[in-house]
Amino acid sequence: MRILCVYCVLFLLAPFAHAYDRVERTLNFDLEQKRLDAIAAKGITLGGFEFFPLMGIGEEYNDNIVKSEVLVLDDFITHVSPGFRASSNWNRHLLSLDVRTDLAFYARYSKQNYNDVTVDFKSRLDVLRDSALHFSTFFGSLHEDRQAVEQQGGITPTKYNALDIDTAYVHKFNRFSVGGYFDVSRRDYQNVELITGQVRNNQDRDRWNYVPALRLGYEIQPKYELFLKGYYANIQFDQTKDRHGQERSSQGGDVVVGLDFDATGLITGDAAIGYRHRAYDDPGLEDIGGVTGWLSLQWNITPLMTIYSKITQNIGETTLKDVSGSNITAVSLGIEHELLRSLLLKLDGGYSHIQYQGYDASRFTDERKEDRYFVGFSGKYTLNRYFYMDLSYRFSGRNSNRSFNDFDQNRVFLNFVARM
User: Fold this and answer.
1) How far apart are CA 394 and CA 373, in angstroms?
2) If we measure between CA atoms, which residue out of 216, 214, 217 comes closest to residue 168?
3) Helix, strand or coil for residue 190?
4) Cβ distance 374 to 350 under 8 Å?
5) CA distances (Å), 159 to each of 101, 111, 150, 334, in order?
6) What radius of gyration, in Å, describes the C-alpha atoms of the chain?
């Protein structure tokens, strides 16, 4: 409640920000940009594209690698992270490709090794001055976070493939705007060996998610847009029934009304509130419904300091017996400060509450609840335009009303990156 009050105060005060702050930011912009350009990567120009290769090598210490309350194992982890970014430098239209990797090698527990790879492609076709067609594709060969419910009991992290295809057409005329969206996502999970010697078959988690959406906007004044957005979600699992004989496919949607705002460049963000509903094919699984929305803010206190925060509500998928899904409420807050031109400091933290809908009555008498939290601190030091290093610390944990499901974890990470 206190956080919401602070947000409301900031939003109400934003339009009355002092004029001298705007003038100071304008005067300092060119100077700050020149300072940043002096240590920014130049990249390689290839025709109409800019190519930015990089190579990262890091070392991590993790005092609880499987995020367990009972089996607490610590290890040193070496990370090798080659990648590149390429983007067009055209006056109109856009093409960009971002490839990232994280190859992790554990010193003692090599079964925990993983090779994460992501490929992110974005494009924009400027049809008219105020009309654009957007198309993006994301592919990831990833591993699931150890605190996921479906990860419990696994000897190795669960690996999966993620595919997201997003298409949007946005047109603005006078003060009105209209946008049509169609997002398709795919999740494909691999089987995992359990500590009991059995193998968990994760094929019942594989699914497609189809989400068409429509957004209508009206600019009530410059940089303040009121919008109405509606989603329809159709989630189709590959298998009609999961390992417990329950039908996981579902349909539903959200309708929200909100506001995009930019208060003199000092405070920007968007907020929305509405209603959501999700119905499952299996009559034994509870529907999920209620108030939904989000609040996202970025406050540029000075040219050298920024505070950002976000509150969201989402629905999570699961294959727990008799559980339809989960309501996830998450809050995050962070601050970045440029202490020196070459030294950027960051402090952030977050909290999420997860309420599972339904429970296995043969084992439990109430629904599962979890509180997850983290806090972290990092410093990024840029030696020159070709090298930088960062040192970070992160504490995370979970409290659950299920026995032996709590944990605390500390991680320290030192990373060196070469770039062009």
Assistant:
1) 11
2) 214
3) coil
4) yes
5) 15, 12, 12, 30
6) 23
Residue owning tokens 């594709």: 137
The sign of the dihedral angle between the CA atoms of 61, 62, 65, 69 is positive
- How far, in Å, CA of 325 to CA of 242, rounded? 14
Q: What is the Cα–Cα distance from 80 to 78, expressed in whole angstroms?
A: 7
pLDDT tens-place string over residues 393-410:
999 999 999 999 999 999
| Whether 298 contacts 267, CB under 8 Å | yes
Q: Where are the domains of the chain?
A: 2-116+223-233+245-419
Say whether 292 sits in a helix, a strand or coil.
strand
The HSE-up count of residue 368 (CA atoms within 13 Å, CB side) is 26
20 to each of 24, 25, 28, 224, how far by Cα in Å? 6, 8, 12, 21
Question: Which residue, 116, 120, 158, is CA-closest to 139?
Answer: 120
Is pLDDT at 8 greater than 70 in this prediction?
Answer: no
CA distances from 125 to 46, 99, 137, 181 (A): 21, 22, 15, 15
Three-state secondary structure call for residue 247:
coil
CATH topology of domain 2-116+223-233+245-419: Porin (2.40.160)
pLDDT score, position 150: 87
Question: What single DSSP character describes residue 33?
Answer: H
* DSSP label at residue 179: E
The structure tokens 């992270």 sit at 81
Tokens read off for 377: 């601190």
d(CA 59, CA 383): 19
Instruction: Report whether 102 contacts 83 (CB < 8 A).
Output: no
pLDDT, tens digit, 9 for 90 and up, residues 34-60: 455 667 888 999 999 999 999 999 999
At residue 316's C-alpha, the angle toward residues 315 and 317, to 5°, is 125
CA neighbours within 13 Å on the CB side: how many for 279? Answer: 5
| Count of positions (residues) in the chain | 420
Cα torsion 155, 158, 159, 162 to 10°: value is -170
Cα angle 177, 7, 224 (rounded to 5 degrees) comes to: 20
Task: Give buried/exposed letters for 315-336 (b at 16+ CB in 10 A, else e).
Answer: bbbbbbbbbbbbbbebbbbbbb
The answer to whether 295 touches 311, Cβ cutoff 8 Å, is yes
Please tell me the distance from the alpha carbon of residue 254 to that of residue 138, in angstroms, as a whole number. 24
pTM of this prediction exceeds 0.85: yes
Query: Three-class SS of residue 277?
Result: strand
User: From residue 276, how far is each of 83, 121, 210, 352 by CA, in Å?
Assistant: 39, 30, 16, 19
Inter-residue contact 292 to 275 (CB < 8 Å): yes
